[in-house]
Design a protein that fits this description.
The complex is a heterodimer. By secondary structure, chain A is of the alpha/beta class. Chain A contains 5 helices and 5 strands. In chain A, strands 2-1-3-4-5 form a 5-stranded parallel sheet, sandwiched between helices. In chain A, helix 1 packs across helix 5. The two termini of chain A are 16 Å apart. By secondary structure, chain B is an alpha+beta fold. Helices cover 63% and strands 13% of the residues of chain B. Chain B is built from 17 helices and 12 strands. In chain B, the strands form 3 sheets. In chain B, strands 2-1-5-4-3 form a 5-stranded antiparallel sheet, with helices on both faces. In chain B, a hairpin with a 5-residue loop joins strand 11 and strand 12. The chains are: A alpha/beta, B alpha+beta.
């Protein structure tokens, strides 16, 4: 197990996932990128269950959530993460195409760490994701790991 | 008041003026008993009273006068009778004295006894007095005066003194036969005359006694006649009084009673006296009352018609929670009859979940508050529930509530449908925001990646295509973003507070100027007031208008933009943004504020056609209005007006 923690990206849309991954890789972030396709998989990963039952221990450095996903949506994942004392310290960033007021309000109410609207222009998108990954994975000092 | 006037008053629909004229033109006749009675009725009460007293009194007075006259006649007759008796006594006295004198003289002649001379002398001395008395008693009767004259002559002629003297002379030789004979003849004549006088008096006595008797009879007759006439007069007067006053007063009294009970007075005979006046006034009062009652009934019938035909439910309820009166609309809407609705407390009809609210509203009404709008569900006879919107006015003094209700079930259903539609629209917007932008992002993203990946192998034409794809996708992304923003502005909650328009304009001016560093723009910004509104939305308005001004003056080497407020209109703050740009043709002014409406091609001036639509939507949501003035190639001025007092539509 490496001491560089993972970044979990929950994104159901393959194109978006590829663009996001591409943007993060373009930023040369050293963290392992874990892509899950829905909220249920994200929770499986976080709780080390289902397909991720045997994954190495440790909490991810960052969880990037799309809002609109099959099975369990981003808001529900956020709610569970932030209401679980074991997980609530993980930084969670919402990366979505929704600028809807209600989504913003609910996300912040649930304690989201950042809310980023995906720009349409690719360059801006690249910049946004770079900034995001760079900040949370590199600049930001994560909470101390628990025993 | 004439009789015809009274009839006119009693009949409700007679033209008063015409009737009055007819009454004045009508001549008065009292030819028949009815007319006489009318005349009697027309007499004032005082005159009637006097008449009633006079009618029995007059015969009594007349008979009294007659009695007095007749009594006097009787008394006179009686006086005359006693006078006659006196005369008779005086005649008798005179005759006695004559006889006494003669007897005395004769005795003396025979006896020469002087004792006989006593009566003679007494008679001789008394006779003159007796004669005088007789004369005075009979001086009024020519017949007796004549007799008396004869008697006087006879008395004077008697030779009594000579005979006495002869006797005293004691002359016995001769007997005075002559004297005696003369004396005897005189005495016979005297007796005859005195007897005639007695007879005359007897005749008078009979005559006068008859007069006295007939006077007594007449007296009796007159007394009885007077009494009878008085009695008859009294009866007549009493009946006249009864007919003319008492009976009519009874009528008036009965009519007054009828009036007091609210009924119409009976029509009665009119007259000019006080009773007639009362009757007339009562009839007028009755007519007036009837008129008022008629008017009231008309008004009531009118209100009842409205009450019955109203589509809205109308009711009167008491503060104890019962309907007292309901109109037919209740039956139409809820299916309950009026009796069913008024039989039980109205809370029974209220949906169990709404009962608390209804009770609270009733309590407010009981406290005197007016209900302007209140909605609750009421049970229909078929078991369904309908929403009623109430408006109610309490009359706490009378313990009543006047209320109207309207069935708003359909409206509420429509509203609910509308809310569903709105939610669907929101879901759609959300979907657009999320799903439509994603493929665009993918187009631009992958086109960019392709450009980066195959950039070296593409010729210039291929590069241009790639750029066009990316640009077009970006442009569509902005369009969608603007459209979503526009939709968001329509739905987002207004948070009103005091906003400094000056600060907003200065910030917008700096931002706009910063985007066009190469250009020369002459800014004129007048002092601007603070307004009540949503700061974020108003910022959008100002930014849109200022950036438009900058955009459409791009072709001017000396651009001029002026921003100010000329809101002197009462209740409004009017703000304008003026530029000397390309302007617009006023015939298209109605298109300016429409969604996706553009007066210039995007080649000339880029833009999505959403900005001014958003301005209008925001200003409308603040209860304000927007408009624009301009002319082609001569600049444009955009105005928005905001209400200065709170109360704009949210």
């Amino acid at each position: 197990m490496t001491n560089i923690r993972t970044i979990v990206i929950a994104e159901d849309n393959a194109n978006d996932a590829e663009l996001t991954l591409s943007a993060l890789r373009a930023n040369r972030i050293g963290n392992e990128l874990v892509l899950v396709r829905d909220g249920a998989q994200a929770l499986d990963y976080l709780y080390c269950r289902g397909a991720y039952a045997g994954r190495p221990d440790g909490l991810p450095a960052l969880v990037v959530l799309d809002l609109k996903m099959p099975k369990v949506d981003g808001i529900e994942v956020l709610r569970q993460v932030k209401s679980d004392p074991a997980l609530r310290q993980i930084p969670v960033v919402i990366l979505t195409s929704s600028r809807e007021e209600q989504d913003l309000v609910r996300s912040y109410d649930l304690g989201v760490n950042a809310y980023v609207v995906k720009p349409v222009a690719f360059n801006e998108f690249i910049d946004a994701v770079k900034l995001l990954g760079g900040f949370w994975a590199v600049v930001n000092e994560p909470p101390p790991a628990r025993a | 008041m004439k009789a015809s006037d009274l009839e006119m008053q009693a009949g409700p629909m007679v033209d008063r003026v015409g009737a009055g004229v007819a009454a004045r033109a009508q001549p008065r006749h009292y030819a028949n008993p009815f007319q006489f009675r009318r005349r009697w009725n027309a007499l004032p009460l005082r005159s009637k009273g006097l008449s009633v007293i006079a009618i029995p009194l007059v015969p009594l007075l007349v008979s009294t006068v007659f009695v007095l006259i007749i009594a006097r006649q009787g008394r006179l007759a009686e006086d005359l009778v006693s006078h006659t008796l006196e005369v008779k006594s005086s005649v008798a006295n005179t005759l006695n004295l004559v006889i006494d004198g003669e007897t005395g003289v004769r005795g003396f002649l025979l006896t020469h006894d002087p004792a006989w001379l006593g009566p003679y002398e007494r008679a001789a001395s008394q006779l003159p007095d007796a004669m005088r008395q007789l004369m005075s008693l009979t001086i009024d009767n020519p017949v007796q005066v004549r007799h008396f004259g004869v008697v006087t002559a006879l008395v004077g002629a008697r030779p009594l003194a000579a005979l006495v003297a002869w006797a005293r002379s004691d002359d016995t030789r001769t007997t005075p036969l002559e004297l005696l004979t003369q004396n005897r003849a005189l005495t016979v004549s005297l007796r005859q005359e005195l007897g005639a006088m007695q007879q005359e008096e007897d005749r008078l006595l009979v005559e006068r006694a008859e007069i006295a008797r007939s006077a007594r009879v007449r007296l009796l007759a007159v007394t009885i006649g007077g009494a009878l006439l008085g009695l008859l007069g009294g009866t007549l007067a009493a009946s006249a009084f009864t007919a003319g006053v008492t009976l009519r007063l009874d009528e008036v009294s009965r009519n007054a009673d009828r009036l007091a009970r609210g009924e119409q007075p009976d029509s009665v005979t009119a007259a000019d006296d006080e009773v007639g006046h009362l009757t007339t006034r009562l009839a007028e009062a009755g007519a007036l009352m009837a008129g008022r009652v008629h008017e009231l009934e008309e008004t009531r019938a009118e209100l009842d018609r409205f009450f019955s035909m109203s589509l809205d439910m109308l009711c009167i309820a008491d503060l104890e929670g019962r309907f007292k009166r309901v109109n037919p609309a209740f039956g139409v809407t809820l299916g309950w009859s009026a009796d069913e609705l008024t039989a039980v407390p109205y809370l029974n009809f209220v949906h169990p979940d709404d009962r608390e609210a209804v009770l609270a509203e009733t309590a407010k009404l009981a406290a005197g508050e007016t209900t302007l709008t209140f909605e609750a569900r009421y049970r229909c006879k078929d078991g369904s529930y309908r929403w009623l919107n109430w408006r109610a006015l309490p009359l706490p003094d009378r313990g009543l509530i006047y209320a109207t209700a309207r069935d708003v079930t359909e409206r509420k259903k429509s509203l609910a449908d509308l809310e569903v539609a709105n939610r669907e629209l929101e879901a759609f917007s959300y979907s657009v925001s999320h799903d439509l932008r994603a493929p665009l992002r993918h187009i631009t993203g992958f086109a960019s990646l392709l450009q980066r990946h195959a950039g070296a192998t593409l010729d210039s034409e291929g590069s241009r295509y790639m750029t066009t794809i990316v640009d077009a996708a970006s442009r569509m992304g902005r369009l969608i973003d603007d459209l979503l923003e526009f939709s968001r502005m329509g739905r987002a909650q207004l948070v009103k507070r005091s906003v400094s328009l000056g600060d907003l304009v200065r910030a917008a001016q700096q931002d706009a100027a910063a985007t066009v560093p190469g250009r020369t723009i002459a800014w004129t910004i007048h002092p601007l007031p603070d307004v009540e509104g949503d700061a974020a939305m108003l910022r959008q308005v100002v930014v849109n208008l200022v950036s438009n001004a900058v955009k459409y003056t791009a072709t001017r080497t000396h651009a001029e933009i002026e921003i100010g407020a000329n809101g002197h209109a009462p209740g409004e703050t009017v703000v304008f943004v003026r530029d000397n740009g390309v302007g617009f043709d006023m015939q298209y002014v109605h298109k300016l504020f429409g969604v996706f409406q553009r007066l210039h091609s995007s080649d000339e001036f880029e833009g999505t056609g959403i900005g001014l639509a958003n301005v209008r939507r925001i200003i409308h949501r603040h209860g304000g209005r927007t408009w624009a003035e301009g002319s082609l190639d001569a600049g444009a001025t955009f105005f928005f007006a905001l209400p200065t007092e709170p109360g704009g539509a949210a």
